[in-house]
Amino acid sequence: MSINKSTPPPRVRRSQEASRDNILAAAERLLVGGGPQTLRLADVAKEAGVANATVLHHFGTIDGVQAALMDKMIVELVSGLVAMDLPDDPRAGRAAALQNLFDAFETKGAARLAAWLELTDESRRLRTVREAVQTVVRQKIGAAAADEGRLEDAILISVILAIGVGLFGPTLGELLGKPRGRARAVALKLLEDGLDP
């Protein structure tokens, strides 16, 4: 009688940065597939193909993984917004930027992770949010006629609505008998109308 032992996959040597990126990519796959509750240390390590100790070495705790993942998602969102070629028409440019913002919170699980961090009192770790808002205001909107405070307020309400739609839009829309995507359409219309000078 032979015992069939499975051979563990060979260990992959990665640089510190590549190892962190691998762990965050694994955490993002788990987040998108099952929500923030799937971001447990053992699950993230298994998905990344590393030992639990490797995750702890890079992030300290699973809370550190969650906060780093949110930071990564914010940086990607800001990079996407800054890199966008916006139309010259300010209204069309705003509409394109808002679509990108809502896409990020609906499709990548960022809304669920932001809510999870808030509910577990880890939202203080989202240190990149203010920097992200200021980056978008400075680099994308520039020295337009509107003052910086008003622009930050517009971004604030846009993010709040994007998170709300990402979290509750499909469920509440279905409960109220609305067509798919209705919550997003209404939120975008409110923002587009409300942000006109």
Describe the structure.
- There is one protein chain.
- This protein has 197 residues and is mostly helical.
- Helix content is 71%, strand content 0%.
- It contains nine helices and no strands.
- The longest helix has 28 residues, at 148-175.
Summarize the structure.
The protein is mainly alpha-helical and 197 residues long. It contains nine helices and no strands.
- Our count of helices gives 9
What is the ordering of alpha helices and beta strands? Answer: HHHHHHHHH
Structural domains: how many = 2
User: What's the N-to-C terminus distance?
Assistant: 80 Å
Query: Strand count, sense and closure of the main sheet?
Result: none
- Helicity, as a percent range: over 70%
Shape: globular
CATH topology of the largest domain: Tetracycline Repressor, domain 2
CATH class of the largest domain: Mainly Alpha
By secondary-structure content and strand pairing, the structural class works out as mainly alpha
Tell me how many strands there are. Answer: 0
Quickly give the CATH architecture of the largest domain. Orthogonal Bundle
Strand percentage lies at: under 5%
- Mean of all residue-level pLDDT scores: 79
Instruction: Show unreliable segments.
Output: none
Radius of gyration using CA atoms only: 20 Å
